[in-house]
Amino acid sequence: MLHIDKKAIDEMESRYRGNFFNTISGFKSANLIGTIDKNKQTNLAIFNSVVHIGANPPYLGFILRPTTVERHTYSNIKGTGFYTINHVQEDFIEKAHQTSAKYEKAESEFHRCGFQEEYLHSFIPPYVKQSNIKLGLKFEEEHPIKVNGTILVIGSIQHAYLDEKYIQNDGSVDISLAQTVAVSGLYQYLKTEKLDKFKYAKP
Amino acid sequence: MLHIDKKAIDEMESRYRGNFFNTISGFKSANLIGTIDKNKQTNLAIFNSVVHIGANPPYLGFILRPTTVERHTYSNIKGTGFYTINHVQEDFIEKAHQTSAKYEKAESEFHRCGFQEEYLHSFIPPYVKQSNIKLGLKFEEEHPIKVNGTILVIGSIQHAYLDEKYIQNDGSVDISLAQTVAVSGLYQYLKTEKLDKFKYAKP
């Protein structure tokens, strides 16, 4: 077994290190975050860092890179107080990945990358029409990470949209059935195959 | 498409809501976090919330539930300043899941659930011998989440252990090849199958 110590980490070539550490923490979710600014300019960006914060009431978090460059997702969320999280499915991974390109603010990734905006129940930001599972969130709090200037953004789930057929008897959503993909690092998309499902564990 | 609004969320039965919101945010990583206290009592617990914070230098975060009940992982990390993150593989998902049971502090999940402690390069907490990919981390900072008392814990990666055959030319770790599993919610384990791998996207 290879041992990579602090010195070896420091000596890695920058992109190599980026790939290594983006993949080595395990599989991630693939979600498109939809936002809008006060001039109705929309933005759509793929994130692999959405994390569960709590269920009652329901909260999700995600990590934003440092705001040293313009981050449209961040400024739109701060501007309107709302955003949408939309699952990425197998049939549109290439388009979803393309939202990670650095478009100008005047160019919406919805239009540039082939996604349709969907406005539901007077919610301010657009959902992704093509997504089988979509969530509407309200911004709640943010935590600047001291070590590297990234930001943890936390929101509460206000709306959920999905076909009833994806909801199992115990409330679990069968996201494999909904064709939601997983991601390894920033570039590798994967589909999943169910192994075992266990129960609440007792000693 | 079913619309679940705030009222419907509030009215969900508690376990049903737990399952619904633990699954609806997408696939998660499955990692065993290994710790030790000052009396050499070890602890091992499964987490599905490990998230990438940065690659240069490399940082990972994970979410801990509120400390209103005793959290051995948290107190051990605060006590020694170090912890290990170990991938969960297909061949030991049942044992790994069992570490989520509430054992007494005097009972180590390493022993109770059938894992072997491995001490490497004078690092204080134990790694999981059976894991194909293991990381040694140093505690860096924590962020109490206001809305529900969970805690974001951030650490820097000091050591990585894995077989060279899992490392691709660009530095990416092929965690599917290492048999690392993904999780949906708290109970469903999945294996993955690669779809496309894309490049850094440009407009």
TrEMBL record, chains A, B:
InterPro entries: Flavin_Rdtase-like_dom, Split_barrel_FMN-bd. Keywords: Flavoprotein, FMN. Its cofactor is FMN. Coiled coil: none annotated. Residues 32-165 form the Flavin reductase like domain. One of its GO terms (molecular function) is FMN binding. It comes from the Bacteria. The keyword Disulfide bond does not apply. It holds the Pfam family Flavin_Reduct. The keyword Flavoprotein applies. Belongs to the flavoredoxin family. This is Flavin reductase. It comes from Marivirga arenosa.
